[in-house]
Design brief:
- Helices cover about 45% and strands about 25% of the residues.
- It is of the alpha/beta class.
- The protein has a 7-stranded mixed sheet with strand order 3-8-9-5-12-14-16. A 7-stranded mixed sheet has the order 4-7-11-6-13-15-17, with no helix packed on it. The protein has a 3-stranded antiparallel sheet with strand order 1-2-10.
- Strand 1 and strand 2 form a beta hairpin.
């Protein structure tokens, strides 16, 4: 009897440990956007990995035209991930060879976004650690790169991207020669290090400031202060006073530390001081639109839309979206609208701005949906239909 009791205790102890490991693994993974976990070692391990719309994904190594891709999102549970630039024309993605089909990566290309998943959705047995390599052309124009990694080392090298987001459960991340306007990092266990070459004219300094700010906001152990990061931004402005990015850095520091009014004051100063600062214009106009200060936003948006060089520097689709939104709010706030005497030319001015937004570079699904909502409401209220051919 004692022997049976001991066996039961051992068995239940193992079950409790296993369940605890499952819960801990699931919590750690879910915090970092990973829909899976694995417990055990080698062929005795049990894993579960899940993602939505799995039937829309294709299997295995692939390549894609870089010109049609603006976002890359990667989920990788176990193994190293390397994303780096190279002298080529297409985005090339590969993993370890010799895998069973169920263990191969899944991918989907939809609306300019590449989504890469670790393996087939569902339960699996046995260790499945494998490495991923993503090669991105040197001249690729990426709006966003997001990597959610479980266990392994993450390396990003030689990339130029507007927004870089890294989420890790356990392991280290190394960033080499990265140019990013916005950086977001999160690590449950591990460290993230940046190797950035400033050069003679402070190249990539904005990335370094963004990195320091992200580290400061995510940890109480950093040995530098917000004031020291601001000093770095001020030094950037002194070294290159005509570079709008130096001033945008100062705004981001204030905005990232709940001092938005100070940041807005910086944007106001830059707007008055610079003849051409499209990124600051866009950020300032966006804030004013959110506040409902449409009359104040209108001349800034008009200035952006009239300058042919602006579209080379910012998201053109979002710029035209703000233009249409501003014209629409101006129409709604007019006496003519209140008196049901709307002039057709005012409606067409809104429609033309939205048409440009729908056809411009950088159109996102949420903005497209918002435009459709505005168009539907305006057409039903005025009886003036938005041409279907303008949607293509």
């Amino acid at each position: 009897m004692k022997r049976k009791a001991i066996v039961r205790i051992v068995v239940w102890s193992l079950i409790i440990v296993l369940l605890a490991a499952v819960i801990i693994s699931a919590i750690a993974a879910s915090k970092n956007g990973l829909g899976g976990f694995q417990v055990g070692l080698g062929r005795f391990s049990l894993g579960y990995y899940r993602f939505g719309n799995s039937g829309e994904y294709q299997i295995g190594d692939f390549s894609a035209d870089a010109g049609s891709v603006s976002e890359i999102e990667i989920e990788w549970l176990y193994g190293d991930v390397r994303v780096e630039s190279y002298d080529g024309d297409s985005i090339s993605v590969s993993e370890d060879a010799g895998l069973d089909e169920d263990d191969m990566l899944r991918y989907r290309i939809h609306d300019g976004k590449i989504s890469i998943k670790y393996r087939k959705s569902g339960f699996y047995y046995g260790s499945r650690e494998k490495d991923l390599v993503v090669m991105v052309p040197n001249d690729a124009d990426l709006d966003e790169l997001k990597v959610s990694a479980g266990v392994g080392e993450l390396t990003a090298a030689g990339l130029s991207v507007a927004q870089l987001e890294l989420e890790m459960v356990s392991g280290n991340a190394v960033l080499e020669r990265i140019s990013a306007s916005k950086l977001s990092t999160e690590s449950v266990s591990g460290k993230i290090s940046a190797v950035v070459s400033f050069g003679a004219i402070f190249q990539n300094l904005s990335f370094s400031i963004d990195y320091l700010l992200a580290e400061w906001t995510s940890s109480e152990k950093e040995d530098y202060t917000i004031e020291s990061i601001l000093d770095l931004a001020k030094e950037y402005q002194e070294k290159i006073p005509d570079e709008e990015d130096a001033w945008l850095c100062e705004f981001e520091i204030y905005d990232g530390t709940n001092q938005r009014e100070k940041g807005v004051a910086v944007l106001e100063e830059v707007t008055a001081k610079f003849r051409f600062c499209p990124r600051c214009w866009l950020r300032y106009a966006d804030i004013l639109m959110d506040r409902g200060e449409y009359e104040k936003a209108e001349p800034i948006i008009r200035k952006m839309c009239k300058n042919p060089k602006t579209t080379e520097k910012i998201n053109a689709s979002y710029m035209y979206f703000l233009d249409g939104q501003c014209k629409l709010q101006k129409l709604y706030n007019s006496d003519a609208y209140d008196n049901d005497e709307v002039d057709e030319k005012d409606v067409w001015a809104v429609y033309k701005a939205f048409k440009r937004a729908l056809s411009a570079r950088g159109l996102r699904e949420n903005i497209k949906s918002q435009i459709e909502e505005y168009i539907l409401a305006l057409s039903s209220e005025t009886g003036i239909e938005f041409p279907d051919e303008w949607r293509n």
